[in-house]
Specification:
Layout: H1 2-26, H2 30-52, H3 56-83
Helix pairs in contact: 1-2, 1-3
Length: 84
């Protein structure tokens, strides 16, 4: 169960971080983009370990988490832009 939760959280984290990373690149914020890239690699390593351990349910949770992470990153970005 912990492995599935870890996969889910890694999926949310990876996609949320990717969205922030892309935004930093688009805005030419090199230092922030470099920091986000470290977090991307960290989440990707967690996913890789899950795959190596053949924790297939955790990989499915990772994919669902990725979907949710991207959704919230874009949604929160839109809300922030609407308020500005």
């Amino acid at each position: 169960m912990l492995t599935i939760l870890l996969g889910f959280l890694a999926g949310i984290g990876t996609d949320f971080i990717w969205a922030k990373y892309v935004k930093c690149i688009a805005n030419h914020h090199a230092f922030a983009a470099a920091n986000w890239s470290i977090a991307i690699h960290l989440c990707s390593l967690v996913a890789t370990v899950l795959l190596i351990d053949k924790a297939y349910m955790a990989i499915i949770a990772y994919l669902i988490g990725g979907y949710i992470g991207t959704y919230f990153a874009v949604r929160l970005g839109k809300i922030k832009n609407d308020v500005s």
